[in-house]
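User: Could you go from structure to sequence for me? I need the amino acid at each position, not a summary. Structure tokens:
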């Protein structure tokens, strides 16, 4: 009886084991064929009308960026007025020691020291959002990864061989970039190229992925504001200008009809 029971169990177990193995193989094949992370399609999605976001972005810039980068076309007082930052907070948290509220936002790092340390002088960021676009900044801040061949031990997908270290790695965590080999051509013309696949976190950061994404978005939002502090006001005026031009066009057309009604 025991012999027959063992045989029955074996008959049921074999198909189950085979199905489990096939499922594991299918999962592995699916993982191998999964599409790489399309980081080039990431969008900042920031909103310069969001005052709270701009305030957080100003805080982020002063804590993580102003040590190397400046905003030489923006004054502290202008930021405080536009972002509704109280004077007490402005003087205590934003204005650099030795500066006053009417000064432009500059970095305390001497240019010759920056060049010795990084090989180049960090650029002013006043117009970075207008020259490169907010999506570029967003992707740049989110695509740092470890690279032991670089002097800073880090590299970047959006700006390869960047001289900037991963200054926000304590927030996001330390990441390793995983690349895959992609072959093209055939025969003697066959070539193999390494293409980015995904990131793997090796050391966790102090923020979750959602929190860090919000941190980057707020920082990008502030840099977008800094590139043109009056852009919200300009856009609101733009609607009225367009309406005025439409009305002027209508009056001009009616006037033309009046002048030319006797001409045959």
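Assistant: Here is the amino acid at each position, in order:
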């Amino acid at each position: 009886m025991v012999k027959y029971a063992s045989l029955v169990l074996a008959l049921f177990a074999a198909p189950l084991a085979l199905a489990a193995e096939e499922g594991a193989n299918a999962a592995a094949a699916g993982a191998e064929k999964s599409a790489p992370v399309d980081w080039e399609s990431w969008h900042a999605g920031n909103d310069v009308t969001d005052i709270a976001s701009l305030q957080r972005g100003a805080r982020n810039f002063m804590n993580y960026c102003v040590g190397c980068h400046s905003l030489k076309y923006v004054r502290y007082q202008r930021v405080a007025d536009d972002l509704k930052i109280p004077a007490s907070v402005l003087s205590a948290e934003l204005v650099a020691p030795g500066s006053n509220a009417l000064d432009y936002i500059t970095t305390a790092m001497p240019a010759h020291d920056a060049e010795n340390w990084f090989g180049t002088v960090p650029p002013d960021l006043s117009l970075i959002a207008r020259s490169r676009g907010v999506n570029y900044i967003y992707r740049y801040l989110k695509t740092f990864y470890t690279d032991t061949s670089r002097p800073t031990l880090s590299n970047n997908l959006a700006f390869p061989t960047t001289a900037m270290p991963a200054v926000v790695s304590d927030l996001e965590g330390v990441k390793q970039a995983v690349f895959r080999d992609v072959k093209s051509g055939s025969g003697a013309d066959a070539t193999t190229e390494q293409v980015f696949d995904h990131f793997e976190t090796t050391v966790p950061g102090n923020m979750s992925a959602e929190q860090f994404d919000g941190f980057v978005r707020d920082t990008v939002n502030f840099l977008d504001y800094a590139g043109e502090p009056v852009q919200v006001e300009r856009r609101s005026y733009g609607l009225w200008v367009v309406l005025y031009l439409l009305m002027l066009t209508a009056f001009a057309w009616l006037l033309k009809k009046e002048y030319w009604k006797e001409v045959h």
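One structural detail worth keeping in mind: The radius of gyration is 29 Å.
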